[in-house]
Amino acid sequence: MWSKVRLYADKHRLIEPDKSYIVALSGGADSVALLLLLRDYGCNIHAAHCNFHLRGAEADRDEQFCEDLCRRLGVPLHRAHFDTQTYAEVHKVSIEMAARELRYRWFEQLRADLGADGICVGHHRDDSVETVLLNLVRGTGLRGLTGIRPRNGYILRPLLCVSKEDIEQYLREKNQPYVTDSTNLEADVQRNKVRLQLLPLLRTLNPAVDDNIQRTAEHLTEAQTVLDGIVESLRNRDALELSELESCGSGEYMAYEWLRGYGFNGTQVQQALTAETGRVFTSATGFDLLRDRDRLLVEPSLKPLKPLVIPEEGVYVMGDEGRLTVRREAVRVSKTADCATVDARKVRFPLTVRRVEEGDAMHPYGMKGRKLLSDLMTDRKMTAFEKRRQLVVADATGTIVWLVGLRTDERCKVDENTTEALSLTCARL
């Protein structure tokens, strides 16, 4: 078994004999075998044992076993005790998730304190096979079918190349006892049902099913690596043409890989790809996805903007939107989008800066008659995101003096009778 483990560890650059590692030691066959292998390999190892106080005397038995084993082997042992039940209740998570969060948080803290090069855990081939089957049943994507990865940050899994049977045979040859967690023998959780019921049934169809599933997972991992390279080029993009996605070979898959980083789920991505222009989807993490003609756009969900009342000339900050400068000046006509010049006598204070609202209309400069702002923005081919961010400046009579950055109102224009102008300058922060 050591030959398999060493080749696997070398291939994935997991362990080196002159480095320091923490071994997650439960007392079970997997972690005990891992401890012996790393010790014999010449690594500087520390053992870490968690007592979750969930199995009464059996949990205390496991801790005592680990203490006796480490004392005999001359391996330093670090122990942690957790009130797992209370943690699960307070954080509203399952017992399994609570135990996972507690142990991995402590492992990382211990690694940092000891300056260790990695945290070795005893996951083996059968664990990976069970993970593949569980994810398949749950309806996961390609990534979930790659099984358990040999490395996840500082978490290292050198035993993924060997089976539970290989491990137990190795310990028998070493004449090394271990403890058994009785809950692993109960088919009362999903993973145990896969282990104790589904896999034995599959083995009646093909005795090599475990190896075949693991080999398939490794092939899918290689495919995922290739796809990850393509997806990486999409990172931090806030817009993608559908033609770009289709050129990758699988538009829906690439769209999902791009958008899952923003918190969108597979159903939302699928719907967005076939939605009508203008439809918006919101993720659980505070982002909006817009289908805009032949492209997808992403931006943070819009925060409410309290209307800003401007009683007189001056400089006014509009939250995250920027600042508006209002001042009287000699008659002139602005030629830049960020500044509007209107006839001071035709505008009544206080002014109000707000976002466009449904039904807003104005008499656009240079045009006859009234026009809805929504139609004006549509004519300019503005996206739904741009429309919802659009600001207006209205005066005390409700007249929309300026559709900020776009148009002023014909009724407020500077003409040959203007004696004093009012300039409005918007500066984005």
Summarize, please.
The protein has 429 residues and is of the alpha+beta class. Helices cover 40% and strands 21% of the residues. The mean pLDDT is 93.
Could you explain how this protein is built, in words?
The chain is of the alpha+beta class. Helix content is 40%, strand content 21%. It contains 14 helices and 21 strands. It has helices spanning 2-11, 29-41, 57-73, 84-91, 95-114, 125-138, 164-174, 190-205, 209-232, 242-247, 251-259, 266-274, 373-379, 384-389, and strands spanning 20-24, 44-51, 77-81, 118-120, 151-152, 155-156, 239-241, 280-282, 287-292, 295-300, 308-310, 314-317, 323-329, 339-343, 351-355, 361-362, 371-372, 391-394, 400-403, 407-408, 421-427. Helix 4 crosses helix 5. The longest helix is centred in the middle third of the chain and has 24 residues, at 209-232. The model has no long low-confidence stretch (mean pLDDT 93).
How would the blueprint of this fold be written?
Blueprint (H helix, E strand, L loop, with lengths): L1 H10 L8 E5 L4 H13 L2 E8 L5 H17 L3 E5 L2 H8 L3 H20 L3 E3 L4 H14 L12 E2 L2 E2 L7 H11 L15 H16 L3 H24 L6 E3 H6 L3 H9 L6 H9 L5 E3 L4 E6 L2 E6 L7 E3 L3 E4 L5 E7 L9 E5 L7 E5 L5 E2 L8 E2 H7 L4 H6 L1 E4 L5 E4 L3 E2 L12 E7 L2
Parallel strand pairs: 1-2, 1-4, 2-3, 4-6
Antiparallel strand pairs: 5-6, 7-10, 8-9, 9-10, 11-15, 12-13, 13-21, 14-21, 15-18, 16-17, 18-19, 19-20
Helix pairs in contact: 2-7, 4-5, 6-8, 6-9, 11-12
